[in-house]
Amino acid sequence: MRFEGELVAWNPDTAFGTIRPAGGGEEVRVSQVAFPMDGDIPHLGEKLSFEIVTGRDGRKVAAQVRRLPPPKRDSAFIPLRETKGRRRPRRPRTMWMLVGALLVLGVLGMAQWKASHSKDLAGMSAAPTARR
Q: How many structural domains comprise the chain?
């Protein structure tokens, strides 16, 4: 009979871990040799399907372990708690837009000031000087 559960402990040095059955009950030991030879190492929290057999020492152990595919989700709906580590789409940076607007206003203001004061500046240089 097959059971489903989650890998709750894994020691890569000894190649042994523990699976917690989804329906409850006592945790079951699992060895690296029970996993499929797909080249992928066991990961904590991984959902698994397995059979329970009695080991040489008389304890229950998992055998013929299969990895379960992750549940499919609607891509339009992502719960808020799962968006924490994800990057948000890039949006224009408000600060840089503000800096750009201030720069444009500064250049326009300088041009306006120069145009309004050019007559005064021209008049000052054309003013007659007293000669003796």
A: 1
